[in-house]
Amino acid sequence: MSSLLGAAAGFRSTDLDVRPRSVISGRQRWDVKLVLGRPQAAEVLAAVLRRIPGITEAQASPITGGLLVRHDARVQGADVGRLVRGAVALVVSGSAGARRPAPAQPAAGAAPRTGRGVVRPALAVGGGVVAGLALIRGASLGKQLVALGGVAVATGVVVRKAWRRTVDAARDLPGTAAERHPLLEIVGPHRRRLCRASVLSVACQVSEMALGTFLGWTALVLIKGQAGPLVRFGLTTASAQLWGLTGLVGVACAAVAGLSYASNLQWRRLGQEIEHDWRNRTYAHVQHLELRHLEGERTTRIAGVLSDDVRQLGAFFATSANDLLQLSTSLALLVPLFLWLAPQIAWIAFLPIPFIAWLSFHYQDKVTADYAVSGEDRARLHSQLVNTLEAGATVKSFSTEDYEAERIDRLSAEAQDSSRRTDRSTIRHAEVVRLCTTSSMAGTLLIGGRSVLDGSMPFEVFSPLIGLPQMVMVRMNRLGGIVDQYQRTITAYDRVRRLRALPAEIDGTGGPLDAEEVRGEIVLDGVTFAYPDRPPALEDLSLTIPAGRVTALVGATGSGKTTIARLLMRFQDADFGSVLLDGRDVRDLSRRDLRQAIGFVAQDPFLFDGTVADNIRYGSFGASDEAVVEAAMKAEAHAFVATLPDGYDTVIGERGAALSGGQRQRIALARAILKDAPVVILDEATSAVDNETEAAIQRTLRAFAADRTMLIIAHRLSTVRHADRIYVMDKGGVVAEQGTHDELLAQHGLYASLWQLQAGELAA
Ligand SMILES: Nc1ncnc2c1ncn2[C@@H]1O[C@H](COP(=O)(O)OP(=O)(O)OP(=O)(O)O)[C@@H](O)[C@H]1O
């Protein structure tokens, strides 16, 4: 570290700016100016933070200036800001190594990647071109060729430096292959289509330039009576030349149209394939994330990455990559053409290129943070919109429609403000590019015109060259848009990679678990567990849930009942102690096998937007219609389903919005019954149904539970009175009492007083 943290230099006071972006339990995001565009500072800051006990993860992005910090219970959420500010101050105060190394002085410990590595090849290429031409064209053109060589070298340096910077920044992203540019990472396995599309684009561009040349010759025939170059092809008269040119123009037009159609099709397909591929792979990863990460991210944020960001990856290749390639091709053709035909004006024609390239990459640096902020603002707005729409009834019941409208208005104004900032920079950049290209065109006309007038360049050479650079310069005008899209793509890529860097669930290595052979004995042995940044939900808890019996967990709210179910299903793992199923630690089992062996009805069951039958069949997709109906009968759902307009084919809307709470619970119960697992956990599964229906469910469940282990979590004691064993949980995740219903009543303790309270309420 000391090699990285050297003497202080090069930071501004604004680099100490640190602002919270989102704060949730155990995970915080911050905007840190210091790291923006400085991969090494990002690296050092993350390393400093990771050394702090209690900080479990720290990642800083030089692309967006974002810092992600995860921490455990040893660090209080309120302290993270202080720690981040301290770490930033530390990096700023002792940080030569945290700066990007200057090209000529690479920092200690950093690879010398920008200095000689960039200048050398650029100089070699530029110098080679100049020397070659000086030899061919003679020494009289020395000055112009040196100028052009300078333009080529400057362009090479700027482009290469920007390319390296993006690679360096991307290298900090977890899971990114070293030394590969993000664009190559994005293309992934679709290189063949990229090549195909590129070849077609290049061919199209060549045809377009040929078309431009033919049109220039046509003008020459009309002005001067003939075009010299055509005489060599045997077309000696003006009329023959016109006919010949008409044919050539026709062929070139057809080629441009056909090739443009084919190349656009290929680019669009490439874009779609990239989008499809990245969405599928990212979504599959999200599905396998540890639940704590899934719960730790805002759903709308993940949805945003999977829809908008992934679409951006494809969109860049569908349009902007094509534009970029066409621009490069026209330059690659025009530069030698100019050098050969009119080297005296080549340097002025191409003078704006390094400047535009520098301007574009400078602009890219400037707007990176603005893009990240505006993306974040839009995500917040989207999240609030979705939340408010979902909370329609709550909003109306509190008459807070105006309050919500104001909230959206405020967030929308913030999003508008940040978009306005990026728009201003984008438009300014595009206009400066236009100014440069127009000036260069004027310069080409003036200097070229003077050469024609003083006889140093023939008019027939100059004439076609007037139009060709214009074609390039028109494309150069699009460079602003391309850089804008490129920037959006890199920012989107950064977000996608960060999502994909979250760890997936890891399976135990203790071999498979056959659901058929599970007896269902569950033992918690000295289990302690705390959610991040919270006091322990369970503390040194030991209890046994015997196989083939009905066991109940009752007691104080927040006493850890649901947490026990979550540990058993490995949504979380115990911090200390172990959870055993048939004597095997659940951490050693395959999560899939374990969860296959457990039927679970959550406190707030989720129903999908589909039919009743689809929802009952969820997870047991091969079940017959008869089995679905039978499960619904056991869950006392059949009677109400039969009254729905389309019975089991009735669509129940998002989250089952078209059903009552009790009906939703019974569908979820039917789903768990259909799964027919050897262990069943019902977490407040019947809390929303009336007493009479619940009694009926209890009767059928008794038969269903005969050959399996059932764990019932409930507040309503009538739900559990027939259980073989009841554990009464108290605050802090400890067992206060245990026994059967009668034994617990006889103890005259917590359970007995709860029973009296509830029985009294029932009687009243
Ligand atoms: N995802 C979570 N993140 C942080 N803390 C949590 C989370 N889920 C639960 N907790 C906390 O853990 C403790 C135990 O919660 P748990 O849901 O297990 O209690 P419970 O006994 O099932 O409560 P209830 O009877 O109200 O359903 C509570 O203090 C709760 O606030």
UniProtKB/TrEMBL annotation:
Keyword Iron-sulfur: no
UniProt membrane topology term: Multi-pass membrane protein
Coiled coil ranges: none
Gene3D superfamilies according to UniProt: ABC transporter type 1, transmembrane domain, P-loop containing nucleotide triphosphate hydrolases
Stored SUPFAM superfamilies: ABC transporter transmembrane region, P-loop containing nucleoside triphosphate hydrolases
Compartments, as annotated in UniProt: Cell membrane
UniProt cross-references to Pfam families, sorted A to Z: ABC_membrane, ABC_tran
Domain ABC transporter: residue ranges: 522-756
InterPro entries in UniProt: AAA+_ATPase, ABC1_TM_dom, ABC1_TM_sf, ABC_transporter-like_ATP-bd, ABC_transporter-like_CS, P-loop_NTPase, Type_1_exporter
Superkingdom of source: Bacteria
GO CC, alphabetical: plasma membrane
Listed GO MF terms: ABC-type transporter activity; ATP binding; ATP hydrolysis activity; ATPase-coupled lipid transmembrane transporter activity
Domain ABC transmembrane type-1: 197-488
Statement: the UniProt record of this protein carries the keyword Transit peptide: no
Keywords assigned by UniProt, alphabetized: ATP-binding, Membrane, Nucleotide-binding, Transmembrane, Transmembrane helix, Transport
Transmembrane segment boundaries: 122-139, 145-163, 199-223, 243-262, 331-359
Role: ABC transporter involved in fatty acid import. Transmembrane domains (TMD) form a pore in the membrane and the ATP-binding domain (NBD) is responsible for energy generation.
Similarity remark: Belongs to the ABC transporter superfamily. Lipid exporter (TC 3.A.1.106) family.
This protein's name: Fatty acid ABC transporter ATP-binding/permease protein
